[in-house]
Inverse folding.
């Protein structure tokens, strides 16, 4: 890479990690499209997956005191069991269709949360243990397309009265699946030996961006933080819908 590309991608990694450190999600949403400009989507996803390991682990450590392990670990373990099922049975299902449905679910959950409040949504969804349904679906999607985040994030954020706790739980969920997702990428041929030299040099920037985002999130007023994450979740849903139609 020439110096200009290094600087451009370095900024992308830093801003993407800052976004994840700030809100608890959104890293791949920003980084993958930018990397795709130079490498194509497959390589961009691989580089994002490798660098995301550093971000996920560090973000989890930064928020570990807020994690509800008894709630989130069963969801993560359930997803793990369904990753191989998704890899084996869903690889022939059109990804655009699944992505579009997922985007719609993210938008509907977030809008319902904004209109009714977290407590009302939580009572409706947690009463029937809908979290395990989201866990199964996220595991299936992780196995088929390495896309576990959007569905589970929207569920966790919509059903928790503390957005900071929801953010922490999301990081715990991500770290539960990290090893399996990397293995999925390797077996699919997405991550290759050439991925590491393109990924590892940017790890310090990813860590710095994650730390900065986490620090800023702790200083944002509670209502402002909730509104920010809600708006970004809706943006994530719209992105998935637009991407499915491309």
């Amino acid at each position: 890479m020439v110096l200009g590309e290094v600087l451009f991608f370095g900024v992308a990694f830093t801003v993407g990690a800052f976004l994840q450190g700030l809100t608890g999600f959104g890293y791949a949403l920003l980084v993958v499209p930018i990397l795709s400009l130079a490498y194509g989507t497959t390589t961009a996803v691989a580089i994002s997956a490798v660098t995301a390991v550093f971000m996920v682990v560090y973000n989890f450590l930064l928020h570990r005191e807020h994690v509800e392990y008894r709630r989130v670990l069963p969801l993560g373990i359930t997803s793990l069991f369904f990753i191989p099922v998704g890899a084996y049975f869903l690889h022939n299902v059109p990804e655009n269709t699944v992505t579009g449905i997922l985007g719609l679910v993210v938008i509907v959950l977030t809008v319902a949360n904004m209109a009714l409040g977290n407590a009302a949504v939580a009572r409706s969804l947690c009463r029937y243990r809908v979290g395990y349904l989201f866990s199964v679906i996220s595991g299936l999607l992780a196995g088929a397309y390495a896309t576990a985040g959007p569905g589970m994030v929207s569920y966790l954020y919509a059903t928790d009265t503390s957005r900071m706790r929801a953010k922490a739980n999301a990081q715990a969920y991500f770290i539960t699946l990290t090893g399996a997702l990397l293995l999925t990428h390797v077996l699919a041929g997405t991550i290759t030996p050439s991925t590491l030299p393109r990924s590892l040099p940017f790890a310090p920037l990813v860590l710095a961006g994650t730390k900065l985002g986490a620090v800023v999130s702790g200083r944002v007023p509670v209502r402002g933080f909730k509104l920010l994450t809600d708006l970004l979740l809706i943006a994530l849903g719209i992105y998935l819908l637009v991407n499915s139609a491309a």
Notes: The chain has one domain: 3-245.
